[in-house]
Write a structure and sequence with these properties.
The protein has 214 residues and is α/β, with parallel strands linked by helices. The chain contains 8 helices and 9 strands. It has a single domain, classed as Rossmann fold, CATH 3.40.50.300. 42% of the residues lie in helices and 19% in strands. It binds guanosine-5'-monophosphate (5GP).
Length: 214
C-alpha cells in the first residue's frame, strides 16, 4: 500500500438481468479494464455449453456435491434457475472483500436477495435492462448455444425477471450497439462506490495522521 492509499473493504458488485440483456459481455469488459476487479466463479449443476471451461466460466459440479456445499455453508447464496442449481462459493469472496479487492458476480435476483442479508454493506447491485423485448430475443437467438425450446423458455421468463428491478441499487439500460456506454456507466458506479465513506475503513487513522502533521 502506498503512503496515501487508505485501507478499504472490497465491493461485491452484482450484475443481474434477464438472459441475453448483455450482462456477461459487460462483466468481461469491466474485468479486462480493471486490475482490482475479479469475477466470482459460480458452481452449477448444469452441463457445460460448447466453449465453456471448468473453473473459468463455472465450476461444474454434481448435484450431490452442490447439496454438500449448501449443507456445509460453503455457498454465500444459491438458487435454482431454469431447473439447474447455481451458487456463489463463500471463501474466495470473503477473502477478497477482507483484502480490499473487488469482486463482480453475474447472478440472478434470488441470489442477490440472499446476498443483501449475507454481505450487507459490501454489496452493490446493478440491474441491466435490454432496450426492448425484440433486442433480447435477437441476442438469445444469436447466441445459438441453446435449443429453440430453451430460448423460448428464457424469453417467457424474461418479463418475470424484469419485475425485480426495484430491488437493485442501480439500473442500466444496455442500449443496442452501445456496449461502451453501459460499461462506462457501471465503471462510474464502481468508482463512486469505492470512495464511499463507510467502505474506507482506514479513513479515521488517515485523518488523524493528517491532522497531527504525519
Ligand atoms: P446460464 O446457465 O445462462 O449461465 O445462467 C443462467 C442464470 O443463472 C443467469 O441468470 C445467471 O445470472 C444465473 N446464475 C449464474 N451463476 C449464479 C449463481 O452463482 N447464483 C445465482 N443465484 N444465479 C446464478
Amino acid at each position: 500500500m502506498s503512503g496515501t492509499e487508505i485501507e478499504r473493504r472490497g465491493i461485491l458488485l452484482v450484475l443481474s438481468s434477464p438472459s441475453g440483456a448483455g450482462k456477461t459481455t459487460i462483466t468481461r469488459e469491466l474485468v479486462a479494464r480493471d486490475d482490482n476487479l475479479r469475477i466470482s466463479v459460480s458452481v452449477t449443476t448444469r452441463l457445460p455449453r460448447a466453449g465453456e471451461v471448468d473453473g473459468q466460466h463455472y465450476h461444474f459440479i454434481s448435484r450431490e456435491r452442490f447439496e454438500e456445499m449448501v449443507a456445509k455453508g460453503e455457498l454465500l447464496e444459491h438458487a435454482i434457475v431454469f431447473g439447474n442449481c447455481y451458487g456463489t462459493p463463500r471463501a474466495p469472496v470473503e477473502a477478497a472483500l477482507n483484502a480490499g479487492r473487488d469482486i463482480i458476480s453475474d447472478i440472478d435476483w434470488q441470489g442477490t436477495q440472499q446476498l443483501k442479508a449475507s454481505v450487507r454493506g459490501d454489496l452493490v447491485s446493478v440491474f441491466i435492462l435490454p432496450p426492448s423485448l425484440a433486442a433480447l430475443e435477437e441476442r438469445l437467438r444469436a447466441r445459438a448455444q441453446d435449443s429453440a425450446e430453451v430460448v423460448c423458455a428464457r424469453m417467457a421468463k424474461s418479463t418475470d425477471e424484469m419485475s425485480h428491478w426495484p430491488e437493485y441499487d442501480y439500473v442500466v439500460v444496455n442500449q443496442k450497439n452501445d456496449l461502451e456506454a453501459s460499461v462506462q456507466r457501471v465503471q462510474a458506479i464502481l468508482a463512486a462506490e469505492r470512495v464511499k465513506r463507510d467502505r474506507q475503513i482506514g479513513l479515521a487513522d488517515f485523518v488523524n495522521r493528517l491532522r497531527s502533521g504525519g
